[in-house]
Amino acid sequence: MQFAWKGVFPAITTQFTANDGLDMPLFEKSLQAQLDAGVDGLVLGGTLGEASVLTTDEKERLVKFTIDKVKGKVPVILNIAEGSTREALLQSAYAKSWGADGLMLLPPMRYKSDDRETVHYFQTIAAATDLPIMIYNNPVDYRVEVTLDMFGELAASSNINAIKESTRDVSNITRLRNRFGNRYSILCGVDTIALEEMALGADGWVAGLVCAFPAETVAIYRLVKAGRIAEATAIYRWFMPLLELDIHPKLVQYIKLAAAQAGVGAEYVRAPRLSLAGAERERILKIINDGIASRPVLPDYLQIKL
Q1: pLDDT digits (tens, 9 = 90+) for 165-186
Q2: CATH code for the structural domain at 7-300
Q3: From its record, what is one biological process in GO terms (predicted)?
Q4: Which of 23, 116, 238, 240 has its CA at 20 to 30 Å from residue 293's CA atom?
């Protein structure tokens, strides 16, 4: 599938049953909510998808199921987050054979690779596939920063064509544009600065709270890109207490609880994660329920022509 790296790409959660199996009916409900809201792509097996505790067979099932359900309406992207180049190459080959439309690629896990090693890792995987690749640059959580000079080297790989910008430095959008123009598509990867980064020229948003609030997320993106900043900002201000759930080590538990409260998911997670309990659960529930109770009326954002 030919597609553009722009718009809202949910980092979709993996739905589990109470017995720790894949809950495919609920996963389908979650997918449909995203499609109905007008998302532009889907990212499977990311942090929110609990990739580190999924088997290869489960990833295959999720990718093939999603492709079957979306029927070409939006691209299906598989995240690659592995500890070895060999395993990353294997997973990227699987992604191609399963029918994925693209890859989101993290630096090597566990080992903190230096600049030369990181570039070589990305280049090696890019050379082994014809799938388009989005580099996930998140030094806050994964310790490795992909610098401007490294992106300069990676520009020689024609299928590395997008960046998930998660440095949490909004000025990096401007640095990337000044250095590379439109060579790379840029998608914000941090919910709490998404409006700011899109206003500065980011092409889209790899979103987290979209898993619970897809319409509000897509509305903000479309309003910003249509220049209707005041309308987007009003929704964004309502959204902010919820968006802050995305920048916590327990973002998976928090966002899954939000999706459960919104009726589009369940809060079951896979160990070693545990579902929230006690005072922490009550605190997060209050944030979520307060947001649901004051949910804004949205404009007819799906009719906005971009």
Answers
A1: 999 999 999 999 999 999 999 9
A2: 3.20.20.70
A3: N-acetylneuraminate catabolic process
A4: 23
